[in-house]
Amino acid sequence: MTQYRLSDVEVGKNYTAKELDSFVSTTDVVLVSNNENQLFNEPDREYKVVHSYAGFFEHSSDNGEKYYREKNVYVVEKV
């Protein structure tokens, strides 16, 4: 799927699942989808990027602390 080689996505634009697959395969990002673990099941299904964030908080089960991770996060929804 890396043949699409997306290095960036834009809020408000639509992308196919195979394009998003390429994006996460070549970029250090987090994708959050409204259809849970079904994001890559249908390669030609389209998704709209609805939000982006520069990072997120994560809870460590090891020590109970919360850490802010500076990693781009994109929220996508089925079109």
Would you kindly provide a written description of the structure presented here, covering whatever features stand out?
This protein has 79 residues and is mostly beta strands. The chain has one domain (2-78). The chain contains 1 helix and 6 strands. The chain has one helix spanning 17-26; strands at residues 14-16, 30-33, 46-53, 56-59, 66-69, 73-78. The strands form 2 sheets. It has a 4-stranded mixed beta sheet with strand order 1-3-6-2. A hairpin with a 6-residue loop joins β4 (56-59) and β5 (66-69). The model has no long low-confidence stretch (mean pLDDT 91).
Structural domains: how many: 1
Instruction: Give helix % range.
Output: 10-25%
The secondary-structure class comes to mainly beta
Mean pLDDT: 91
| Overall outline | elongated
**Low-confidence residue ranges:** none
Question: Count of helices?
Answer: 1
Q: What is the H/E string? A: EHEEEEE
- What is the chains' assembly state? single chain
> How far apart are the termini?
21 Å
Number of DSSP-assigned strands: 6
Percent strand equals: 35-45%
Largest sheet: 4 strands, mixed
Cα Rg: 14 Å
Strand order of the largest sheet: 1-3-6-2
